[in-house]
Amino acid sequence: MTPDEIRGWAAEAGALDEFLQEPNLARLGTVEENGDPHLVPVWFHWDGQRFFVGSQAGDHKVANVRRTGRAAVEVDSDLRRRRGLLIQGSARVIDGPEVDRSTPASARRRSADTCPIVLPWRRRTA
Questions:
Q1: CATH architecture of 5-125
Q2: What pLDDT, in 10s, does the model give residues 35-69?
């Protein structure tokens, strides 16, 4: 299995898109300069190809993504239903005029230092 393959409940037609439309909290994982993990709860927007994570320019997670170009996003729902998703890989920070051009309005915070993090993901079923 490759990292972008989908298996289990999410491989069912429409199940993954339905899940990602629910108001589930996500967690963003990055790596600090000293190698320690940095894991924080975040809101996300899924546009069918990319995860957008709201952030501010001064956030640790932004500095970590700028430095490494990598991140992980974990999304889960009620643990009793055993549904969750983990995406790991390349990530980038969107800032400046590109925020308005390439970030869906629902993924933007309304402040001058909005700096979304985006993780592209090509999904394939296993």
A1: Roll (2.30)
A2: 999 999 988 888 888 888 888 888 999 999 999 99
